[in-house]
Amino acid sequence: MYEHLETAEHPDKLKRVVIDPVSRVEGHGKVTLLLDENDQVKQARLHIVEFRGFERFIQGRPYWELPVLVQRLCGICPVSHHLAAGKAIDQLVGVDPENLPIAATQLRKLLHFGQVLQSHALHFFHLASPDLLFGFDSDIAKRNIIGVIGAHPDIALQGVKLRKYGQEVIRVVSGKRVHGTAAIPGGMNKPLSKTDRDYLLTDIDQIIAWTASAVELVKQMHCSNRSFYDEFASIPSHYMGLIQTDGALELYHGGLRAKDTDGAVIFDHVDYCKYNDYIHEQVKSWTYMKFPYLLSLGKENGWYRVGPLARVNNCDFIDTPLAEAARVDFKQHFENPQVHSTLAFHWARMIEALHCAESIKRLLNDPVTLSTDLVTQGEKRFEGVGVIEAPRGTLFHHYQIDENDIVTRANLIVSTTSNNTAMNESVRQVAATYLNGRELNEALLNNLEVAIRAYDPCLSCATHAMGKMPLAVELVDYDGKLVDRLVKSSSGHIAAA
Amino acid sequence: MTQTFMLDGLAIPFEEGQTIMEAAIAAGHYIPHLCYHPDFTPYGSCKLCNVEVNGKICAACTFPAREGQTVVSESLERNSDRQRITQMLFVEGNHFCPSCEKSGNCQLQGVAYHLKMTDDHFNHQFPHREIDASHPDILIDFNRCIFCALCVRASQEEDGKDVFAISGRGINKRLIINSDSGQLRDSELTVNDRATHICPTGAIVIKHTAYQVPIGDRQYDHQSISEVSMEQDGNVS
User: Fold this and answer.
1) ∠ CA(A95), CA(A97), CA(A99), 5° rounding?
2) What is the mean pLDDT of residues A410-433?
3) Which domains does chain A have, with CATH numbers?
4) Which residue in A485, A490, B66, B123 has a CA-CA distance of 20 to 30 Å to A435?
5) B215/A64 touch (CB, cutoff 8 Å), yes or no
6) CA dihedral in degrees (A417, A421, A423, A429; nearest 10)?
7) Architecture of the domain spanning B81-209
8) pLDDT at res. A57
9) Which H helix or E strand runs over A221?
10) What average pLDDT does chain A have?
11) What class has domain B3-74?
């Protein structure tokens, strides 16, 4: 829709506006805008300007290190990388998901639900809610979690406690709130004790109630300014994610499903080990982040979105009652079969948080989860693929090893990568809609941030750092002369510089 | 009549032929160490156990106890030196605790915690070292070798195989394997050998066993290395 703004015909003759860095998520990102003499946007790009190289430096390491090594990719969703790698190395020891001990699968799901819950709570309450509660152009001094605590102490406290609960689930299963150990080849390294089970059950009903309230809160936000919420940074797109055999929402394991902009199925229940037959990645010279696309639709038209909105759009139902009721309500709010509102990511995210809370209770009440039968082994293989629905979307880990158990090749398609084109589209939409002919100010910067932040990108560790992206915007005139420059520090202070 | 020496102001009894380290452990006093193991001939290489004996620096693991000695171990100066030595061990190899399978069971890490080491102080050397994963059951990650030679001594003195040796000097020092190819798979090492299990770091590990012990149940999760050392080193035959 806004792809014509990806590359301008004569960039050397255009004014250049740079936001650098936009954020610091797995490195730094920046936004560049090229404007003509009438301040009309001719080009808008979100660049990822740092290279991390995990795929290279894990080569040469023994495969059993992978779940612990790769989880260091992230401090917010390390569990996703841990479990995706864990699923991949299960295959290296000859264990397919259906052959994993049931208790091991349930413990992994419990761990995963805890992590999605805490990550979604962190993003919505700590990072996104200041924009949504106060307005994108509200007083910047109050547009932060401290402001939320002052104005809405009950909401802020719920956010803190929801995140704490999710992290307690992670600690109980993996030994640490961040970067623990749990998944080992063919299973899990520790059973859930009855004491720990009872401890987690103590607060679960309150957690379910709070996540249900969060769904209602984000719905009220949408309803309070419906046309704006529906249209801001919104782009029609395809959607992809894991799905259960019966079409239910799935976060841990399933087949791949993709739907087009109208909700028609592109492919369904695809074995994710064959992902390379369906998804390829395009490289562009101006960013280190690749551009995945659906092979059948080609590079130009095959881009898609992943994450909460994609999952809620793609699933036929959710297998927990409160989240399913929330999903039905969500779908009824929008007229189209597929919801393309980018700000609806927040709504879908809270529906998933509710689903996680309900799922945690279900798993804790299942006696099988306490079983000590946690590990199995099979015949060694030389290739393994693990895919999981991380908080931000579908996450692929693909490894090959040699006869000595050493990793020889690795390919990771991190969730946010799949949203690369979409985030660029949203940035272009916001730039075209809100920047054209406008004078630079903090509210403008925040509109770009809000658009990027809606995706909760893993290139936004900055949004995970109290939502204060350090920004610098420069307006350069037709002759390359600096006309205007604003800098926002990590403390949120804005000054001309 | 029992002979004694003074260790940090306390009278330590000893038997003729005992080293300062052996007498200290027998009396329940921990002196930090890495290359010392009560089952094998003292080597005196890591220098962590250096103490002042009548004002002179000596390795407690090799220096014999003598009547009337005044030994200082737990002084600010001695522990400062120990911390610097430990920091050098970290930067001379490639020790990445966050992903190391020996984390929580590693003596180098345990000593670092004991000495309250909070940074590396020196610049990392990032040496280029290989992994020998050729053996079906055992892996050697040379990145984590601190040249304590415990595997050398265990192989010689208990296994009777002579699988390992330390070659070269200074910065070129390296652990080598006694086989025609130089690889572990062609050596006599087996998974049941004492040398396979003696490494104080994660340099020699048993394949396919990593992370099976959960966080909370590892050696040093609830006990310091001084407590573990007193239990293990003090109960040898």
Assistant:
1) 60
2) 87
3) 3-50+419-496 (no CATH), 59-416 (1.10.645.10)
4) A490
5) no
6) 180
7) 2-Layer Sandwich (3.30)
8) 82
9) helix A204-224
10) 87
11) alpha beta
pLDDT top residue among A451 and B166 = B166
Residues of chain B with CATH 3.10.20.740: 3-74
Nearest to A62 among B98, B139, B217 (CB): B139
The answer to whether the CB of A47 falls within 8 A of the CB of A291 is no
Contact across the interface for A69 and B99, Cβ inside 8 Å: yes
Per-residue CA distances from A52 to A25, A286, A335, A392, B9 (Å): 11, 16, 41, 19, 54
Q: Check A68 against B211: CB less than 8 A apart.
A: yes
Q: A473: which 2 tokens? A: 């915007």
- ipTM of the prediction: 0.93
* DSSP-derived 3-state class of residue A51: coil
* CA–CA separation, B72 and A83 (whole Å): 50
Residue in the structure block whose two tokens are 């040496």: B127
Q: What is the DSSP letter of A273?
A: G
Residue B101 with chain A: CB contacts under 8 Å:
64-65, 68
Query: How many contacts, defined by CB atoms under 8 Å, are there between A and B?
Result: 54
The first and second tokens of residue A9, run together, are: 């015909």
Which residue from A minimizes the CA distance to B135? Answer: A404
A210-265 confidence digits (pLDDT tens): 999 999 999 999 999 898 899 888 899 999 999 999 999 999 999 999 999 999 99
- The pLDDT-based confidence of A385 (bands split at 50, 70, 90) is very high
